[in-house]
Amino acid sequence: MIYLTRRAEFSASHYYHSAELSPEENRRIFGKCNNPHGHGHNYVLEVTVEGEIDRRSGMVVDLKHLKEVLQREVTDVLDHRFLNEEVAAFRESIPTTENIAIEIWRMLVPKVDFGRLYRVRLYETPDLFVDYYGPQEQAASTQT
Amino acid sequence: MIYLTRRAEFSASHYYHSAELSPEENRRIFGKCNNPHGHGHNYVLEVTVEGEIDRRSGMVVDLKHLKEVLQREVTDVLDHRFLNEEVAAFRESIPTTENIAIEIWRMLVPKVDFGRLYRVRLYETPDLFVDYYGPQEQAASTQT
Amino acid sequence: MIYLTRRAEFSASHYYHSAELSPEENRRIFGKCNNPHGHGHNYVLEVTVEGEIDRRSGMVVDLKHLKEVLQREVTDVLDHRFLNEEVAAFRESIPTTENIAIEIWRMLVPKVDFGRLYRVRLYETPDLFVDYYGPQEQAASTQT
Amino acid sequence: MIYLTRRAEFSASHYYHSAELSPEENRRIFGKCNNPHGHGHNYVLEVTVEGEIDRRSGMVVDLKHLKEVLQREVTDVLDHRFLNEEVAAFRESIPTTENIAIEIWRMLVPKVDFGRLYRVRLYETPDLFVDYYGPQEQAASTQT
Amino acid sequence: MIYLTRRAEFSASHYYHSAELSPEENRRIFGKCNNPHGHGHNYVLEVTVEGEIDRRSGMVVDLKHLKEVLQREVTDVLDHRFLNEEVAAFRESIPTTENIAIEIWRMLVPKVDFGRLYRVRLYETPDLFVDYYGPQEQAASTQT
Amino acid sequence: MIYLTRRAEFSASHYYHSAELSPEENRRIFGKCNNPHGHGHNYVLEVTVEGEIDRRSGMVVDLKHLKEVLQREVTDVLDHRFLNEEVAAFRESIPTTENIAIEIWRMLVPKVDFGRLYRVRLYETPDLFVDYYGPQEQAASTQT
Fold first, then answer.
1. Exposed site from D74, D87, E66, E110, fewest CB < 10 Å?
2. What's the complex ipTM?
């Protein structure tokens, strides 16, 4: 088993607001991230695929295919978007780094027909990132 | 003469649209940056001050003071903002990297009472940045 | 489960010397790090917290709270210090990257009342870092 | 248990070609990497060793020794080489990032007489890297 | 006047050898870079264009156009190439970082019909780079 | 003319104190940097040399020679040192980033027998650096 990670980038804007919280709670918890005009980030995404090396190609995964999947399924959808308004998943959930990482997992997992999707890492800034290994049962059997 | 540079960061969103261009021209020139919902970046700002070393402190500029000026005059104003809607300067001009850099110069120059403001460098992403040395006559006499 | 990591920085000085080793052994093992005047580093700390996403906030942990805890419990204590002389823990143990990482774990674990402290990563330089997952029994049950 | 990682770098060239594939398949799968003249990279290697802290030295591993082993066993062998032609292991297997990482594991494992070799991470570019934890049985018992 | 810089990357291999030097001199001066099999790098290129801001677009240069020019004129030509054998300019001159930077200037200058080409910076590794401002007379009148 | 820059690193500790200032002024101006135990940094040095390309070697400067000069004249002297106590130049002047950069210029200029020393850039942290182009008269004639 070997783990291959590919990095991609997208720029998007978002804001944090929960309909279940009062305006005061929204301001207290989310601070300046609660500004409904939105603000933005250069997100950096690292997607890790786990697999065995194909003897003929010497690779876990066809890199061109992986790059195309990442672009078509993720960055073309999220890049240059106001996540709260323009991406359906975030009409229901707040586009926090955590929720975006989980959404990216969901976007990718049905399309990964090479190896197995192992981890989604998402940097909001160089100083803040999250790691998601999939739903509990799956993660338990595969985490490293 | 010595040049001291301090880096700061802010996250903001923006979009590109010119009232002087037709919708078609806006789309052609600005592409996905023309999306009026906005998208965002982690901007990285480098401000360079030129001066002589104060013999007693061994410094060109009081670093705490410089940090405070950058925060109060620039990052507190731009951070977590939708630049087109929330920053007055960008009601008139498009918040391109070029125009934001020039606006930051204008914000800082009256407040730099230590040394001389030499350069504003602004990164929109790690792969794209602009340098501004001030209005022509000033730049001509000080550029290095 | 999701893992959120926040980065922080501090600058400190240290030197390596063991009272259990002869002067010759100290010099041989520690080389120029044995210089008792000390030398310094810009340490980079990455603290990872594991938890479930709070449905209302969309977050594993209140980021403002995490930032305050890191600053109060760790960086305010270690920043701009000569670790051997000014931080009590290092009167007994040598402030190697390994021991500083473990000490940071001890400083943080009683204060992490959100999620669970999962990992402390400490970079001494960009080319050298250590990872600590807590005392053995705890690490065994939680490592990813 | 604590994990110490040291980074090293080497520059090498390679190309991708499989004798088991037709010329058309080689071109289709490997694209411009199939160019037999070779092309090159600044590889970045991160080697992680797992161990307990030696009470007297405060360290998992003698850093000077680790640095020497990395240089003698890995970077002196691979640096400034055309991997396909000049490194015996790659006469049989294609020098993909995956295979180079595994080869580095094999080069290092008999020489690591301190702690236990835990992981080899190899970056081909900042946007593409692989992680190898050793042959299956060993990895299963040690992964974190 | 404002200066806009765009970064691009390419991977190539090369070796250093001068027909005017004896084999001994080649080995002494170029060391392991003299290996005729070649070795490689991930080159990072930063191209700076100087100009005035177009009032309607708020930009010095059409970024899409600049990106296309860099790709068509430079990275498509140099990426995944063995420079000594596959790029005509380096049949006559040694593909040192200095000479590659000058060659990139030559490739770009007739194609820059926006602003004025101001500087080519080329990193061979993160620790080594060159800056070229064009032929002397031109550089003298434009350098900053 | 072309400009070649080489990067080097050293770790050192220092503190800020002026004998010409009262204890109160020292504390006010230098803050926690006034702590006499010292604190430390991983300094990053970039040295730029300006010259013409040697036709036979294709280089401005013999890179091995430049590397040796930087190591012998600068990093061997400053690395793993408490600058205030162990480097003679800083008995008289405060080891601020500004003064260290100037001192490195003085260390290097008599040894640069290749090209011309153009600039010393010194990073104290990734967020703070200074540039020094030499004494005024020299800088005036050579700056770019």
1. E110
2. 0.92
